[in-house]
Structure prediction request, 243 residues.
Amino acid sequence: MNASPNDQKKLLDVADLDARLRQAERRRTHPPQAARIAELGAERATRSQELSAATGARDDVKTELQRLESDVSMAEARRDRNAERLAASSNAKDAQALETELVSLGRRLSELEDAELIVMERLEQADADVDAARALLDQLADEGTALSAASVVAVADAATLIEALQRDRAALALALPDELVALYDKLSTRGVGAALLQRKACQGCNMELSGTDLQQIRQASNDAVVQCPECSCILVRTEESGL
Prediction:
């Protein structure tokens, strides 16, 4: 196949547009925020479990505190009843028994109130743990919302760029011989469609050509379409080719 050296050089512009199109397509399908958004999803799941565990632990402490408060109320009620009975009692034996029970109830109430204070401190810490877990979840949600919004913008920008690049590529390809474009398109589906031959090396695969291959290229006419013996891309020759 033959094509003017100028048309062959224009294939490099097509190749550049194709490379930019591939990059833009990657940004469209995999925006830069995607990886962090996925990380946030996994992290939110973990933090949600932690919040659930912290909430469950706090509920257990609340239940324990409610039980202690109930025990305190019952002990206080019994103490008050016994105090009333003692005040109204005229039987010395009954009065002594009531006094003994009142002393016992006093110790019991003191123990219950001490335990109640300890549990109240635990509840305060449990509330703090729940608040911290919820705050972290809120922070992750805010970051996810911001990243999702940025991702939508990035995808839209990439789509706009793709449309512009596709228009430029179509216009450039339209000005080139159909046969040359067809060969380029066929080769580009397998890798690089066209690349410079620069300092005796193919810039498509970065392989230096052998002396035999370079000699064959030297003998080819200026309008001959030559291909890299390693990667098969169209080799565009310039004064920098080292021929």
User: Anything to note?
Assistant: The first helix runs from residue 5 to 29. The chain has a mean pLDDT of 93. Helices lie at 5-29, 34-88, 92-174, 178-188, 211-219.
